[in-house]
Structures are given as C-alpha cells and as structure tokens.
Amino acid sequence: MAHLFKPSTLIFNTIIHIQNRKQTIVNGAPDIDYVDADPALDYCNWKGRGGTESIQAGSLIVYDTAELTMWYRPDISERDRVLLNDDPSKVYEIINIENVEMRNQYMILKVQRVVNA
To answer: What are the φ and ψ backbone dihedral angles of 16, each rounded to 5 degrees?
Structure first.
C-alpha cells in the first residue's frame, strides 16, 4: 500500500484570517484590493521559519517566513494573504502552495511578511 501523507501534528489550533486578492483595472492601471475569503477565519498548524535580512535602498529589511499546514481549501491561491491570529499588523503574503500528494486533503502554505527593521 502506498504511504499517504499525514501531518506530523493534526492539531490545527492557530487561527488565521484569509483574504483573497481582487484586482480591477482603474484608468488602465491595476488596482489591488483584498476581500475576506468565505469563510475568512480558519485554523492551521503554524511553524515560524525565522527571518532573513537584506539591505534595500539603504534600509534593513527582514523577511519573516513561516510554513503552515491546514485542511485543503480550493479558494486559496498564491495571490492571497493571511493574517496570523486575525491580527492586521501580521499580514503574510502567500508565496507557495502545495496540495499535498494532489489529494485535496491537506495543503502546505509558505508565507512571508516584510518587516522594516
């Protein structure tokens, strides 16, 4: 029998607020907005992956990264974002989504936020 993926922990106890990206064209330029997903609140297993630093235009920038495992949701894409603990000051852009074993059961999101140090 094939080995099926099971998350190392099935405890999804970190709350996240999911926002879908909505782009409209205004005067020929894209206007980007975010609207709450339906449902907007969900739970995941959140693992912080630490930050990496870089200098941009003379300013120190820190990329705070994390990986979260959650039940599969087809409405989430790499254009969307999540708010950790439903906190508007902790907005993470989704940079990668893995539909684990293409089984539409679990998904792993890689997220990052930029912090001006």
So the answer is: -130, 150
